[in-house]
Amino acid sequence: MNTRIIGLSAAVAAAALTGFAAQSLAGGDKIAFPANYDKGVMYTTVDRADNKQYRELYVTPAAAVEAAKKGAPLPDGTVLTLVQYRAVLGADGNPTKDANGRFSKGDIVGYTVMEKRAGWGAEYPPEIRNGEWEYQAFTPAKAVNDKANLTACFQCHKPLDKQDFVFSYDKLQAHKGM
Hints:
Elements: H1 2-25, E1 41-48, E2 53-60, H2 63-69, E3 79-87, E4 105-116, E5 133-138, H3 150-157, H4 169-174
Antiparallel strand pairs: 1-2, 2-3, 3-4, 4-5
């Protein structure tokens, strides 16, 4: 019985250490806040009813849109910035809408950034690596959000390898503003 408990304890400890190692692997420290993200291409907006947010997605350089239109991987140096806003809520607690029927945007909740650089990602094991992408989350004050679980970013984007690990790849392809 004691051997079973010791074995189970060792397995739990190993799993916990593995989870901790994966957590510490996600190294958003390579990404600085993209100060000029809003000078890039705003290629889509999203209303998120589940968390009552309005979101804007920007990309730099513009060449990333052209690459997506060709079905190619996004180029080295691509930065995708997701700006999250609280939706303005009405008296009923539901998001109000603007003249276009989209959620009215309130205060910034935070920023999430994906950046792609040649050689990035080599330190990750295959089960978590997202090509050459890194992730970072920032607070409304543009400081690193040290509470963000960056490993979750890698895990969530991992199945999207056919679209360069980008959820909004189809929106980049469809962007008409160029």
